[in-house]
TrEMBL record:
InterPro entries: NT_sf, PolA_pol_head_dom, tRNA_nt/polyA_polymerase. One of its GO terms (biological process) is tRNA processing. Residues 34-160 form the Poly A polymerase head domain. It comes from Tunturiibacter gelidiferens. This is CCA tRNA nucleotidyltransferase. Residues 420-469, 538-634 are annotated as: Disordered. Residues 421-430 have a biased composition (Pro residues). Keywords: Magnesium, Metal-binding, Nucleotide-binding, Nucleotidyltransferase, RNA-binding, Transferase, tRNA processing, tRNA-binding. One of its GO terms (molecular function) is metal ion binding. Belongs to the tRNA nucleotidyltransferase/poly(A) polymerase family. The keyword Metal-binding applies.
Length: 634
């Protein structure tokens, strides 16, 4: 359904779409359903040019005559038996408006019609490729109805009879088959071809009525290449049954070919002339006047005859206007060509000997349309002239005509011309920021907590390091990295070195409390190395209040106070080994440490390790120091 909506919008010309819209409005006003059927659906599906439109309504189409005329349609003929109107709409659009019917044939060529539904109407048609319909009604617009699978035959490029008795009931279908094969290049399927040959031999064509004879003869002139179709019908022997005096031998072949070239050039510029009127004088060029008059009289649509007779006068009027002052500039001539009757334009372009007229047509075919490529779309975008603006299409047309006439040659001229159409620049965007309101009970940031904890941890580490490095018996000296002090007064803080004593009696674990008195100075026994946490870990140590686990008999007063104030040793003894510190105090590995035999070396180690910086301190793994102490207890 969506595919055929697309075809209706893109495969039909603007004039054809306008004509269908007019018929839809008339049918809606009368409460009738309307469908596009026949050759138009076939040509849209196959990709062929849509020459004319066939429309049916579920009702009597003859009653719509006055309404069609009010919608600017010209009635060119009627078929009372088939309840059909032949209409010419503006832009050279030919349309046949019929009724949905079912047909029976008591005798060959004698049809009896009766009102029916759209599906019954499709089943009474000639070939399956023509038995398709598209809904033009609201709610089902673009819906395809194909009860006989005509799409498959279109894909195979075959003509297949709807009924096995199709050629017997309506023998004009044999002529129609030959005409369609010449136009489309299709073939009949095997069974249809066999019935076609049988019909020719049996003389089914003798039952053809006068209306169909004149209708099929007229259709030759409406073909895109009438000479090819005429030769095909002559080869099949059908012209003797249609109109014997009409033959390809009496046609002006040279002028017909030139006429087709001019028609193609006009179509490339958006003008769609119906060439049937112009074809007539060249196809009948060598016929006698009596034969021409008889031929005109036989046509089913006498409106076509009136168009033939009025062609010369209409062409003269157009030529006079085209060569006058009203079409002096290229833009004026362009507008006139797109508003005049296409058939008159075709005839003047083909037959006029006026040099000025021919020069204008030459410019129209080759030069004037090049102005579209000069349209300054980028400049218009810079000037904020975008397609969303009202009147954008009209502005493009004005600009196109100015360029066509050569009035705008430079960018400055184009900019000056477009300046009145440029909208004002939009105001700059305003960014509103909400002011930050300080919360009353806002918690301190984590970074601030860490900084505060780092300062407290640094002070405790300094006190512990000062007490331990004075009297502890440690291992051989290990170089440590310098740690930068946070405050200027503190200077450089010595990083403690892990020491493991060989023969040291470990006293029982007794928690150090604030009430404990400071013992006298004496030898210090180090059970485990003192842990100096880096900045990233000091926060955890201070939060849990777990300083290094130290048991000393004679610690310094300051060191004892620092340990007692910050945290009890008991908590550190339980939790310190379970959570190893990520950053080590010193990069020197613990494997290289040897047990110190000389107790006096501890003071030297402390002195050497004093310049270590606090920021680069990384603790050595504490696992080995913890494991060594228990062995000595035994």
């Amino acid at each position: 359904m969506a595919d055929y909506i697309y075809l209706l919008e893109n495969r039909l010309s603007q004039a054809q779409r306008d004509s269908l819209l007019a018929v839809r409005e008339v049918a809606r006003a009368k409460g009738l359903t309307v469908f596009l059927v026949g050759g138009a659906v076939r040509d849209m599906t196959s990709g062929s040019p849509v020459r004319d439109l066939d429309v049916v309504v579920q009702g009597n189409a003859l009653k719509l005559k006055k309404d069609i005329e009010k919608a600017h349609g010209v009635i060119t003929g009627e078929n009372e038996a088939g309840q059909a109107l032949f209409v010419r709409f503006p832009g050279g659009v030919r349309m046949e408006i019929g009724s949905t019917l079912t047909v029976t044939y008591p005798k060959p060529g004698k049809a009896v019609v009766k009102a029916a539904t759209i599906l019954d109407d499709l089943r009474r048609r000639d070939f399956t490729a023509n038995a398709m319909a598209l809904s033009l009604n609201d709610g089902s617009y673009g819906l395809l109805m194909d009860p006989l699978n005509g799409v498959a035959d279109i894909e195979n490029r075959e003509l297949r009879l709807v009924s096995n008795y199709g050629f017997i009931e309506d023998p004009v279908r044999m002529i129609r088959a030959a005409r369609l094969m010449a136009r489309l290049g299709w073939q009949m399927d095997e069974k249809t071809q066999a019935r076609y040959e049988t019909g020719k031999q049996e003389g089914y064509i003798s039952a053809m009525g006068e209306f169909h004879r004149g209708y099929e003869t007229e259709e030759i002139f409406h073909e895109e290449d009438p000479l090819r179709v005429l030769r095909k019908l002559e080869a099949e022997g059908w012209m003797k049954d249609l109109f014997p005096a009409l033959s390809s031998a009496k046609a002006n072949v040279t002028e017909l070919e030139k006429l087709r070239d001019v028609q193609s050039q006009l179509q490339m510029q958006g003008i769609q002339p119906e060439a049937a009127v112009a074809n007539f004088p060249y196809l009948t060029a060598k016929m006698a006047p009596k034969e021409v008059a008889a031929l005109k009289k036989s046509f089913a649509r006498q409106g076509f005859v009136h168009e033939i007779e009025a062609l010369e006068d209409e062409a003269k009027a157009f030529a006079a206007e085209f060569s006058g002052k009203g079409a002096a500039t290229p833009s004026q001539a362009w507008k006139l060509l797109h508003s005049a009757k296409p058939e008159s334009i075709l005839w003047v372009a083909h037959t006029s000997k006026n040099a000025g007229v021919q020069n204008k047509f030459k410019g129209f075919f080759t030069e004037w349309s090049q102005a579209k490529q000069k349209l300054p779309y980028a400049l218009m975008q810079e000037m904020r002239i975008v397609p969303d603006l009202p009147g954008y299409g009209e502005l493009l047309d004005k600009l196109f005509f100015e360029l066509m006439d050569g009035k705008l040659g430079t960018v400055e001229e184009m900019k000056a011309y477009l300046e009145p159409y440029s909208p004002p620049a939009p105001p700059p965007p305003v960014h509103l920021r909400r002011p930050r309101v300080a919360k009353k009970d806002a918690k301190p940031a984590k970074s601030r907590k860490k900084a505060a904890a780092g300062e407290e941890g640094g002070e405790s580490a300094e006190a512990l390091a000062a007490s331990d490095t004075s009297e502890v018996q440690a291992i051989a000296p290990v170089p440590a990295k310098s740690v930068a002090a946070k405050s200027g007064a503190a200077g450089k803080v010595a990083a403690p070195v892990k020491a493991v004593a060989k023969k040291v009696e470990e006293p029982k674990k007794t928690p150090v409390t604030k009430a404990a008195a400071a013992p006298a100075k004496g030898k210090a026994v180090a059970k485990a190395p003192v842990k100096v946490a880096a900045k990233g870990v000091v926060a955890k140590a201070s939060a849990k209040k777990a300083p290094a686990k130290t048991a000393s008999k004679t610690p310094a007063k300051k060191a004892v106070k620092a340990v007692a104030k910050k945290a009890p040793v008991k908590a550190a003894a339980k939790k310190a080994p379970a959570k190893p510190v990520k950053k080590a105090a010193a990069k020197s590995p613990a494997k290289k440490t040897a047990p110190a035999k000389k107790p006096a070396a501890a003071k030297k180690v402390a002195a050497k390790a004093a310049p270590a910086k606090k920021s680069a301190v990384k603790h050595a793994p504490a696992k080995k120091a913890v494991k060594v102490a228990p062995k000595k207890r035994r």
